[in-house]
Design a protein that fits this description.
By secondary structure, the chain is an alpha+beta fold. The chain has helices spanning 79-91, 113-128, 135-142, 149-154, 189-194, 206-215, 218-224, 230-236, 238-251, 273-286; strands at 6-24, 30-49, 57-63, 97-103, 157-162, 166-169, 179-181, 226-227, 256-257, 264-266, 292-293. The longest helix has 16 residues, at 113-128. Bound molecules: cytidine-5'-monophosphate.
């Protein structure tokens, strides 16, 4: 069977329902215990073979820019471009590839948008060139592109350890709606991690998050979620503290931050439709820059 001329991939974003920093490594990365959960919000990626220089990867980006209005890069800083090049190099391929990305997930928002694009690019180039690499092999390559990329190769729900690449899949998680509250500023992941100070955690509480997820109990999940990057990220970006206070004022303590921010999420958004809707309306009124996704 010949390889297709064009392939399309949906690049789904993630939220971190739990994130604890349990140490710092000699290479500068932090050791984590986190719970990744794929969400429906996604970018769309298209990859096609084009005439061009061997190993060249170009990208056209349509749609939304970064959370702070900064344009999405179209050079090697773009994680989809980087991922496609990693796979071409690994496969010893001299193909030239054009990527086209419809962006919906805001950059710098803790939703792994760029990482999801990179994971999508690995899957797309694998299919486009008929390489037949396994998802395990793509996950291994993915870590060269970023810590969140291995999880996003498969998505679903998983506990991540190490930099986030040691994955323990959680099967049988019922579908649950989440409200996402996205302030209009971005937070640099590197800066948020750089602001982490000891003592480190021990990952305590991760089991309660997994248990609430498997039980499909959004209320319990709202109580169990925790993110150790919240305080360091707010030190880097003081507007985050204001956003959290506004969101918690409207929705209660069930509001949490994803990744290194800036997106906040609410697990039990539809548990009490009337209260939640009123809370969301109040939030949108009180805090310009929030959008609500379900
Ligand atoms: O892996 P990624 O490129 O997404 O990470 C961006 C930055 O975030 C890293 O350069 C590092 O400073 C920080 N980071 C970390 N520990 C992790 C993941 C990221 O310190 N587990």
């Amino acid at each position: 069977m010949s390889a297709p001329a064009v392939v399309r991939e949906s690049c789904r974003a993630k939220i971190n329902l739990f994130l604890d920093v349990v140490g710092k490594r000699k290479d500068g990365y932090h050791e984590l215990v986190t719970v990744f959960h794929e969400i429906e919000l996604a970018d769309d990626l298209e990859a096609r073979l084009v005439p061009g220089r061997p190993g060249e990867v170009t990208i056209e980006v349509l749609g939304r820019c970064g959370s702070d209005g900064a344009p999405v890069p179209v050079d090697d800083r773009n994680l989809a471009v980087r991922a496609a090049k990693v796979l071409l190099r690994e496969a010893g391929s001299s193909a030239s590839i054009a990527l086209r990305l419809v962006k919906r997930v805001p950059a710098g928002s803790g939703l792994g948008g760029g990482s999801a694009d990179a994971a999508g690019a690995l899957r797309a180039v694998n299919r486009l060139l008929g390489l037949g690499a396994s998802l395990d092999a793509l996950e291994r390559l993915a870590l060269d592109v970023g810590s969140d990329v291995p999880f996003l190769v498969r998505g679903g729900t998983a506990v991540g350890r190490g930099r986030g690449e040691i994955l323990e899949r959680i099967d049988g998680v019922p579908k649950m709606p989440f409200g996402l509250l996205h302030p209009s500023f971005a937070i640099s992941t590197a800066e948020a991690y750089a602001a982490v100070v000891p003592p480190y955690g021990e990952g305590e509480g991760v089991d309660a998050v997994v248990a609430a997820l498997v039980a499909g109990d959004a209320r319990r999940l709202g109580v169990a979620c925790r993110n150790a990057l919240e305080v360091p990220a707010a030190r880097v970006e003081p507007r985050l503290a204001a956003a959290l206070a506004a969101a918690r004022g409207a929705c209660g303590p069930v509001v949490h931050m994803s990744g290194s921010g800036s997106t906040l999420f609410v697990p039990d958004v539809f548990a009490d439709i009337r209260t939640e809707f009123t809370a969301a309306q109040k939030l949108c009124r009180d805090f310009r820059g929030f959008t609500l996704w379900c």
